[in-house]
Each structure stands twice: as structure tokens, then as C-alpha cells.
Amino acid sequence: MLEENLLVVFSVITSGLLVGTIFSVVAAGLSLIHGTILLPQAANGQVFLGAGLLFWLFGTEWEWPLWLAVPTTFLIIGFLAFACEATILKRFYPLEDRNISYLIITLGIAQILSGIYTGTFGRISDTFQVTAPVNGFAIIEPVPIAYTRLIAFVLAGSVLGGLVAFLRLHRIGRALRAVFQNREAARLRGIDTLKIYRFAFLLGTAITTAGGILFALAFALDLTVGWTISLITFSIMIVGGPGSVVGALVVGLVFGFTQAIVSVFADPTVATFAYLLAMLAMLFIRPSGLFAK
Amino acid sequence: MLGRFLPKLSVLVCAMAAMAGPALAADQPLKVGWNSELSGVWTFFGNACLDGARLAETEVNAKGKKIDLIVQDNQSNPAQAAAVARSLDTQEKVDLLSGPTNADVSLAVYGYAEDAKLPVLMPVAAFPQLTKPGTKQVFRMEPDAVGWGYAAVKFIKTMKSDAKIGVMMSDFAVNRAILAGLKYQAERDGIAIVAEMLFPQSASDATVQTAQMKAKKPDFVILAGGGAFDATLTRQMLDVGFKPEQLYHPYGSTKQIMTWGERSIGSYFGTFFDHNLPNLTEQGKAFVENFRKVKNYPPGYTENYCYSTVYLLNELVDKGAKGRDGIRAALREVNTKEVTTGVPIRFDQNGARIEYMYLMQLKSLSKDDFKTEKVNYMEWSPEVLPVYDLVR
Lengths: 293, 392
What we know:
Largest interface: A-B, 47 and 41 residues
Oligomer: heterodimer
Number of domains of chain B: 2
Shape of chain B: globular
CATH topology of the largest domain in chain B: Rossmann fold
Order of helices and strands of chain A: HHHHEEHHHHHHHH
Strand order of the largest sheet of chain A: 1-2
Strand order of the largest sheet of chain B: 7-6-8-9-10-13-14
């Protein structure tokens, strides 16, 4: 019995960590974009799903090696993000109240992407399971952890760590943070805010893409997952504070662990939505977001 | 001159048209309004079904057009499905409806059809209320889902008479119906349900629940995740140490099975058609090959039901059924066999099909194919279970 209980306890830890870090990665991408450009990227779930689907297409359906499948996925989504920013999004930069315009535009983009996925991938299958690049388990007695999930967790942690380091140590990262904090002051200090906007959008999209790939590695995809992840990551961003990567990390982990811990005591439906209760509790304590500046 | 001749000519033309009328009508193909999920979240099933139906349509029309599928997209949306049903009824004036593959959409079509007195032959729809008592217009090819739970228990009982089972399912209408049948029959057959977990449709991870299930030590676990979650659930069960022989899926479609992974070889599932069945007819084998050539994967029960639906309608046409009343009457009297497997097709007074299920074991799995072995086959009457009391 002790072994079974240990299995449950360790499964809470592994589930909380893995789900939490992947949530955090996607939320960090969203938060970066919103914190910099004031763009509530409602299409982030569909970008996330698109990344996972392309990764599945190249790596599993077409059997490309990882070294080709992963960069190609980033390149395609990066190109689309660049085109979107250059043709649509940048036109709204001069407007102060652009939030609602962006929300409507990105909701439209989300619907278009969703329609494209159902018309293309939806004809191939209803479930997209990436072939594991590495088979087997790491056994941390008594818990077996699939190598792919372990890899996904390590990579998700690396993405978040790399992003925090970039924002703190790199010149462009510091410029980004300056724009988060005060656009006018940043401009007066000689920062080209329009370039920073473009960079933030591309970086945020790249991070969301990484999240989609990691999720596809750790779990499986269907065409509804984009909307679910959108809701979760918006919640994380709001609670963590728009623009705060640390906020996304902390709140993502809180959400992941809340879901895992509640699973032990309540049925899976309650557990899956427990993060919403966690969100309300945290907003009650700090309505502007835990790490908002 | 012309003025005197014209009235006589018009009378002659009318008389000729009147004589030709019945002959033309006799040659009219059966107009089937295909109300299907060609976009939206059920796109894959709608298109897979239509692929099977189109294949059959091409075959039966090879020597003259007998069946005309008039296809419209319901966008996987019940409200749109009702609108499509109305359009097919009033604009296209179809002889009957068919095509839905999803419970919610099928229920919307059911509502319209019963009101408009338009016959429907549902190819893939397992929700029991589609053939509830008093149903006059709707017939369905797929046995109701309560029976799938019944079959699961009966099968497990053959494996271990006092088995303990666990249940892990996504929470949606069809799975609830399966669970109702499963619980009903488990109680009667002395099969203990040691854990029952229903997941919301948005669930993507079951790490904790699979560990909890492991702690309950069931002999078998019934798994029915929705969409991608089914693949995740299956893999996570194997991760925590369940043997594939302990896993039973109450239903398995081709693409679904292909996502379970090689480690699931040895697991069991229920189905209504499998390309490895030993009892495939010659036409069934040809269907498998022809479908595979077009789609690069073997057909499963969805594709087969849609293919067989068109052939059933073709048989009714061959027997002289025409018009809405004729088709409805002919469907009530159907006593035939599925062209691909020879499984009987009969409907009860509510349009429900005589229940049956194949129990299969997965033997091998590759990217584009899988091998299975039939381990059991069951047939039973829908009246064996109080289906409409269990699922309201």
C-alpha cells in the first residue's frame, strides 16, 4: 500500500511540474506580447496548436528527423507571424486604445486558423500523436517517467530559464523590459519601440511555438486543444501580471499543481477546472496580478 | 392556320408528357440528403463517413444512377444540422436523410425528421434516444451505446468471472450511455467496479488518476477518452505499469487505434467492423482495398457503416421502394445482411438495430496499419437492456 501511495504522491509532483511548466511557457509567450505591445493575443492557442500539428506532420507523418522537423516548424510559424505583424498589427501601433482592436483581430485570426486546421488536418485524423523520439522510461522508484515527458519538462524549463536570462542580461532583453515598464521613457532613452514591438511579437510567438511542440511531445493533440490552452494561458497571464515571465512561471506551476493535487481528492472534472478557483483566489489577493509592475 | 393548330398541339404535348411521367419517375435515382460534419470539430468523422458513402455510391451507380447523395455540411453544429435537414427536405425534396456521425447533431436531425415525417437512416449514431420508444422516422445502423457497455462486461466475464474493473472515460453523451450499460450489467454479472473516473472533454493529462487507478488494483480497466485524450490515457495507463491485456476500449476506430502506440499491443477493444475480420465477404475485402487505395489507411466501423448504408438503400431501391413512404415502410421490414461482413441488419419497432459487437485483440501496429484477432462476437436483442430507462 505504501508503494501505491508513493506512486500517487510522485505522480502529483511529476504531473504538476510537467503540466505547470508547459502552461508557463505558453503563458510567457502571451505575457511577453501583451506586456510589450498591449496586444491580447487571442490566437495564441491556435498558434500553439499549429506548432504541434506542424511538428506532428513533419516529424511523424512525413518522418523527418527532429533536427529538420523542429526548425521547419519554427520557420513557418515565424514567417507567418512576421507577415501578420508587418501587414496588420503594426498599423495599430500609433493608437493608444488598441487593446480591443487587437482582441477582435486576433480572435478573427484564431477563427481563420481553426478553420484551416479543420479543413486540412481535420481530414487526416481526429488525434495527432507524435512518435516518441526516445522510447523507454526513467524509473524513480516507484515512479516510471517516460523519457519524452522528462525531455519535454527539461526543455520547457530551459526555455523559461533562457527567457528570464535573456530579459535580464541581454541588451535587447533589457530594452524589452524597459518598454514593459514605461514606453515613453524607453523612447526618450533612445529605444526604437517599434522595432521592440516587432521583436516582442516574434519572440512571444516563438515561445508559444516551443510550447506547442513540447505539449505534442508530452501528450497528444486534437483540434480542440487550442481553445483550451488559450483560456488557461490568459488566466495565467492575468494572475501573474501581463509582461511578467516570472509571474507566468510561478502561476503556471501553481495552476499545474492545483490541478494535480485536487485530482487526488476530487473527480477529474473538478480537478481540471480547479485552476479557475486558484485564479479567483489569487486575484482576490492582488487584483492587478501577482507580479504586475 | 397556326392559331387553329396550336391548341391541338398543346393537348398532344400534354398527353405525351402525362404518359412519359411515370416512366421518368421510375428512372429517378433515390435522393439521399447527406447531412454531415464536413467542417468543425467532427470534421474527420464526417469526411471519413462520406468517403465510405461516396465509394459505395460510385459502385452502385456504375450501371446507371440509382442513388444520388446530395451532400450538405452541418459544420458539426446541431442548429446548423437542423437547418440543413430543412433545406434538404424543402429545397432538395430528398427521399430520406442520412449522414450524421455525432450524437448532438443526430439528435437535432432526429427532432426535425420526426416533426417533418421525413425518414432518416443514421449511419453512425449510438446515442440511445435516437430510437426511443415512439420513434417513427429514424432508423440507425449502429447499435446503441448502452449495449457497448453490456458487451464489455460480458466479455470481461469470459476472461475472469469475478473480475474487478476500473472505468476511465471522457464525460460525453455516448460514454455516459456506455457507462450506464456497463454498470447495469456489471451488477447482474457479479463484476465489481472498483473505481470510476469521468474526465471533462478538455482534459489532457491523467498522470495522477492513472496512479490512483493502479492503487485500486483492478483486473481490467475500461478506457474511453475523447479525441487526443484517448491516446494520452492509454499511454499513461501503460506508463504506470498496467499490462496491455488489462486494457479494454469499448470502441476503436482506425485512427484512434493507431495512436495507442506499440506498447498497447495485446489490449482489447470492441468494434463493429475491422479490416482483419475473418468473416469479411468478397465485397468487404474489396471495400477494404479500394478504401485503402484512396485514403492510405484501412476503413474502420465509421467508414463501413456509411458504405453499408448506401448499399442497404440500394437494396431497397432494387426491391422497388421509392418515395418517403416506400422507403420508410421498406426500412421497417428490412431483414438482410451487411454487404461487407454478413452481419444481420434488422430494426426493432423503434428503428434500433439488433445489437452485436466484435471483441478484438490488437496484435501488431505500424504507421499505416494494424493487425487484430477476433476473440469474441456477440449478438443480442436491444430489449435485453432497459436502454431507455438507463439513458434519458
